[in-house]
Write a structure and sequence with these properties.
With 335 residues, this protein is of the alpha/beta class. It has ten helices and 15 strands. α6 packs across α7. The longest helix is centred in the last third of the chain and has 20 residues. It is globular and about 55 Å long. The structure holds nicotinamide-adenine-dinucleotide (NAD). The site of nicotinamide-adenine-dinucleotide (NAD) has 24 residues, from α1.
């Protein structure tokens, strides 16, 4: 059986997902695409082998030919499109964020609970990276004892002028927020952000680097050093410190070259390169889950909790102090 998928948003991520669904993923076919940019949508439809083109994403979602929806339009559109998917009871893989405010996420949570069954998966692909999965297995096997600290590094070679200071939390560190919650099985309940000395490579309006300090509901301290103009490549690291040992996220595989009195290993260019296999595994898992009628990936609750933490970060940045994260009690539906 082939799952007939509609894709809303055919920009960088959408086009990449369409390519993936058309060439790598089994049991799926892209039958419809939609984008505000009609020409781009047409080109995307061609790479999918002739999908239907819609100018309005809501019309695509309502098309009877479309059985499941992948949303890859900008974050501020996600809540409305996801709500339409819930309205017609179609499974949806929504790129992060679920919504740009915790309040909008809560509207989506309410609607999914009213639908009575899990229909939403949020695109936190790091949970599908083999390295993070191995790290989680080590923690769960108790090999380093009870975790007490997590040290994360998130570095990009450079960012465009359109990348603003609050995107540090909302677009970049949101991945650490989700993946550390998942690794530890704990919620983040407080955030403090420090602004260290600026790099001269950041554009005029950007504070870079930024340093995030999170506290979990069990008192674990998580630090994330974000540096989005590090110049040398895309570098994501994570060390968990337990009571009896430490565990590191494995470095991505690459050929070690020793020559001319030196030793080098390649560094990925960006996240598409670093997490290519994770995206493939994520989308295949979603397609398979929809086929079985049981989606098991990151839930709308995870989308809500990460947005709530990211939103708190932006306020903590503005106010220059530690702030607690206000989360509703987790509904039984998501336990
Ligand atoms: N999981 C990840 O690692 C990851 C990485 C990058 C981006 N993303 C997410 O993917 C989403 C898309 O990001 P991108 O980098 O592809 O952006 P992009 O700007 O390249 O593409 C967005 C596309 O959506 C279209 N669009 C704008 N408004 C629309 C609307 N109302 N309805 C339909 N289409 C509309 C734009 O024309 C554009 O083609 C964002 O939510 C982003 O946060 C996730």
């Amino acid at each position: 059986v082939t799952l007939r998928i509609g894709v809303v948003g055919t920009g960088m991520m959408g086009a990449d997902h369409i390519r993936r669904l058309s060439t790598i993923i089994s049991g799926a076919q892209v039958v419809a695409v939609s984008d505000l940019d009609g020409e781009q949508a047409k080109r995307a439809a061609e790479t999918a082998g002739g999908a239907r083109v819609y100018s309005d994403g809501h019309d695509l979602i309502r098309d009877d030919q479309v059985e499941a929806v992948l949303i890859a339009s900008p974050g501020f559109t996600h809540a409305e499109y996801t709500l339409t998917c819930l309205d017609v009871r179609k499974p949806v893989l929504c790129e992060k964020p679920l919504a740009t405010t915790a309040e909008d996420c809560l509207r989506v949570l309410e609607a999914e609970q009213a639908a009575g069954t899990r229909l939403i998966q949020v695109g936190f692909m790091r949970r599908y990276d083999s390295g993070y999965r191995d790290l989680k297995r080590v923690l769960e096997a108790g090999e380093i004892g009870t975790p007490v600290q997590v040290h994360c590094r998130h570095r990009n070679a450079s960012v465009p002028e359109s990348y603003t200071t609050d995107m540090g939390a909302k677009d970049s560190v949101v991945h650490e927020i989700d993946v550390t919650r998942w690794l530890l099985g704990q919620e983040i309940v407080a955030a403090t952000i420090l602004m260290p000395r600026r790099t001269s490579y950041a554009h005029a309006n950007l504070q870079d680097p930024q340093f995030f300090l999170f506290e979990t509901d069990q008192g674990v301290l998580i630090d994330v050093a974000l540096f989005v103009n590090c110049q040398y490549g895309y570098d994501v690291r994570c060390e968990v410190v337990g009571e009896t040992g430490t565990a590191d996220l494995p470095e991505p595989a690459g050929v070690h070259v020793r020559r001319a009195l030196g030793h080098s290993v390649p560094v990925p260019a960006d996240w598409r390169d670093r997490f290519a296999t994770a995206y493939d595994t994520e989308v295949q898992d979603w397609v398979d889950g929809v086929g079985r009628g049981a989606i098991t990936g990151p839930s709308a609750w995870d989308g809500y909790a990460t947005t709530a933490v990211a939103e708190t970060c932006v306020r903590a940045l503005d106010e220059g102090r530690r702030l607690e994260v206000e989360l509703i009690e987790k509904p039984a539906f998501y336990r």
